[in-house]
Specification:
4-stranded parallel beta sheet, Rossmann fold, alpha/beta, 4 strands, 6 helices
């Protein structure tokens, strides 16, 4: 449906397969890192498998894909933009989210370091940090009315985000409208962090 866009289907936790597929797909001018998993477990019950899977997808894959794409951008000598999809959970502790919150906090700091190091190459790097978004994953993890009510009550705008809320923020950060924005986190949280 979108001419010029060719989807790649692969397990981003597979370092070698990712290197081969993404390395062959360029050249790139823009990148959005949006893959994520949310394995929710109480802190005392966090399993090694959940920890490994979460960091593989939510952090390591972003670092790896961004390296591949940024190297291509630099080789082209053209400016570029990278947007990493983080979360309000990077900045606020949530029950049963020890691993998820930690991966998203790590992603926020990775973004700042990337912005600092890639800026001289005219590559901007930012995050969007949404509240709960009504995706399939959001519905699975927030379908319990008691759980969702407690979260919504802490959001001044009184609702979860829709996909378009996040997409529009990403489009802004990819565009020249944000030409002087790098190393920033754009909160798409309905005010959750100020409540």
């Amino acid at each position: 449906q979108c001419p010029g866009i060719e989807p790649l289907c692969l397990d981003l936790a597979d370092w070698d397969a990712t290197e081969a597929a993404v390395g062959a797909a360029g050249p790139f001018e823009l990148l959005v890192n949006n893959a994520a998993v949310a394995v929710l477990q109480p802190f005392l019950e966090v399993s090694r498998a959940a920890l490994d899977r979460s960091f593989d997808v939510n952090f390591r894959a972003v670092l790896h894909v961004s390296q591949i794409v940024a190297r291509q951008m630099i080789a082209q000598g053209l400016p570029g933009a990278i947007v990493n999809v983080s979360s309000q959970a990077s900045q606020r502790a949530l029950r049963d989210h020890a691993v998820y919150c930690s991966t998203k906090s790590a992603l926020d700091m990775l973004t700042k370091v990337m912005a600092m190091e890639l800026g001289p190459h005219k590559i901007r790097v930012n995050t969007v940090n949404p509240t709960v978004v009504m995706t399939d994953m959001g519905r699975i993890n927030w379908s319990d009315p008691q759980k969702s009510a407690a979260m919504i009550n802490r959001i001044p705008l009184g609702k979860f985000a829709e996909v378009d809320d996040v997409v529009n923020s990403i489009l802004f950060l990819l565009s020249d409208q944000s030409a002087m924005t790098t190393g920033s986190s754009l909160m798409v949280d309905g005010g959750f962090l100020v409540s």
